[in-house]
């Protein structure tokens, strides 16, 4: 899907590639330079930026090599398998003066934009708390065992589908998370140290609260939702299908005014072209913000390296909280 987005992007173009699947490389246009191994590509002058779309445990080494060879980097979520790896990636990007971002493309969903705008405009009043849910059926969703291997992925549902919604909660709160607590369960799938359900509680420095339930036992299939509550209303984003709800009041407890949004073009597009068509569109928008930020312009909605670091720090704090039954301070 990244390749499809590059084909229609006006900001970026595909100039070089490496893939373990030689058949996939053979299908690329003739102007794309094909490399025999990743390191050779990362050290070449065939591109200005790299997209890392590999299993998670390879992210750190590939990102470090790319950054140290003068490349900007987009790394897919999760940023890396461990917090230490993420910290090293952030430090290297800063030292090399290169851009490092993380592929949290859900920020570009139309419904999420609607909720973010409602918060920023003040329509909801003072933001009090944000809550979210992310779920899918579990092991049937995975194509490879590494996707639920604790040592490679870094965790279970919190590092898989949950990490997208966790990022959205933090993005909407727009404040530094200071306190984290949570509980996890491994009882359904009984995987080694890999949670199939997680319950997370957050508090920011200014006192905004957040909560998340992330699940690999959602028998109705994949979906997520995020709700933001202020003292003058609430806003909700849901997918799939895409929808949003905005409720506002003129005073706390006053008469409620409701607006519901159904993104009919997106729903029909997905019906005929699949959910991948929405993802491609989010990638195109992400590329726009990536180029803008790399050139010293505004970041837009893109997830920075610090956002990626936070998205790993919080699950690790949840694992610690569950083990010690404690509230963990995130620095």
From TrEMBL:
Protein's name in the database: Gfo/Idh/MocA family oxidoreductase
Q: What domain of life is recorded for the organism?
A: Bacteria
Q: What is the lineage of its organism?
A: Bacteria, Pseudomonadati, Pseudomonadota, Gammaproteobacteria, Pseudomonadales
* A UniProt-annotated Pfam family: GFO_IDH_MocA_C3
Stretch forming the signal peptide: none
Query: Where does the record place the GFO/IDH/MocA-like oxidoreductase domain?
Result: 113-235
This protein's UniProt keywords: Oxidoreductase
InterPro entries per the UniProt record, alphabetical: Gfo/Idh/MocA-like_OxRdtase_N, Gfo/Idh/MocA_oxidrdct_glycsds, GFO_IDH_MocA-like_dom, NAD(P)-bd_dom_sf
Tell me the SUPFAM superfamilies matching this sequence: Glyceraldehyde-3-phosphate dehydrogenase-like, C-terminal domain (SSF55347), NAD(P)-binding Rossmann-fold domains (SSF51735)
Which positions fall inside the Gfo/Idh/MocA-like oxidoreductase N-terminal domain?
12-104
